[in-house]
Design brief:
alpha+beta
Length: about 350
């Protein structure tokens, strides 16, 4: 067996080389769920988690998620799975069902010397469906809004059997001074001494406005926190929500901001926002105080993504965004501050 690789050495590898090693971890995990280690596996996504489609010989398709190290402890993952189960049980929304391993546990900790740290993994059922039609984004956002409202309505009335432990996506966790979850926005790609004062001013206004808005139970609770069209699957009249990895406690309107991730500068954002609100209102109402905060949460999310890109500069997605994302954020900040400073 080869000598274990260090985290620093692993980080320096190309994405292709990293994935070759992660696949060894996948092969290690499959027998824990009663699946042959030589099952056909196909990478579905790789940013921080690695998610694979698994096709065992003669068996049903499954999806194996290898969690990123150090992001969620086991209790957090268990809470995610509890909510996913409750959504599938209590609402019309379809979710991927976690599958227990041979020892009856849903979460397994796996390790292989090709990968530096042990990682938690979860096996899910494969759900049929495709992303909403990209050629009709307005309709997609209306569907997103309606689906998001169903999740919010559910969680407000849900009484979980045990305490839910997930990240709290409040201001300090996003843009605070002490250990923000996705890194320090000051390290965003392309950040300069010229840009920083404008962003400092923006962050001060964002802090003030979300502080005044507060975290009452009608406006703050467990949310998906990444419910974009990419995480919605449509199959006939069934709607499936996937990828609850970022789910945590935050403002309900923040889910709208998350839906607009990476397209905040698109000229049709007002139309997408109206469509999302139209869909949302079919299920749950928002107050004027809620809708007045939409632009604030869009800027909060945008700044969080500036931080994420800076702290994940070696990933393909971050490199695709590059310094231009920070520069465009400055233009958005100017527009926002002209109205809210």
């Amino acid at each position: 067996m080869p000598a274990p690789i260090t985290a620093a050495a692993f980080a320096k590898l190309s994405t292709k080389a990293q994935l070759a090693r992660v696949e060894k971890l996948v092969r290690q995990a499959l027998p824990l769920y009663g699946l042959p280690p030589d099952s056909e596996v196909k990478l579905l996504s790789y940013s921080e988690n690695a998610t694979y489609l698994v096709r065992p010989p003669g068996g049903l398709r499954r999806v194996l998620r290898i969690n990123r190290p150090g992001y969620h402890p086991r209790a957090n993952i268990a809470s995610e799975l509890a909510w996913v189960e409750a959504i599938r049980r209590d609402t019309p929304i379809v979710t991927a069902e976690p599958i227990p391993s041979l020892d009856g546990e849903f979460i397994q900790l796996v390790w292989h010397p090709a990968v530096p740290e042990p990682r938690n993994c979860v096996l899910f059922t494969f759900v049929e469906g495709t992303e909403p039609d990209e050629t009709n984004r307005t309709a997609a956002f209306e569907l997103l809004g309606e689906t998001t409202a169903q999740l919010h309505k559910h969680v407000i009335g849900w009484k979980p059997p045990r305490k839910i432990t997930r990240h709290r996506w409040d201001f300090d966790a996003m843009l605070g001074e002490k250990a923000p979850l996705w890194g320090d926005w000051r390290n965003g790609l392309g950040m300069t001494s010229t840009l920083r004062p404008e962003f400092e001013r923006l962050v001060t206004v964002l802090r003030r406005r979300v502080g005044a808005y507060g975290t009452g139970p009608r406006r703050f609770g467990l949310v998906h926190a990444d419910l974009r069209a990419a995480n919605l699957l449509v199959h006939g009249d069934k709607i499936c929500v996937i990828d609850f990895d970022d789910a945590g406690f935050s403002w309900f309107v923040y889910d709208l901001a998350a839906a607009l991730s990476f397209i905040e500068t698109h000229p049709d954002v007002p139309a997408y926002t109206d469509a999302w609100l139209k869909g949302y209102s079919k299920v749950r109402s928002l107050s004027k105080e809620d809708t007045d905060m939409i632009e604030t949460f869009i800027m909060l999310r945008r700044m969080l993504l500036v931080a994420w890109i800076g702290s994940h500069h070696d990933t393909v997605q971050a490199q695709a965004m590059g310094p231009q994302y920070t520069l465009d954020t400055c233009l958005l900040a100017d527009r926002y501050l002209s109205k809210h400073a």
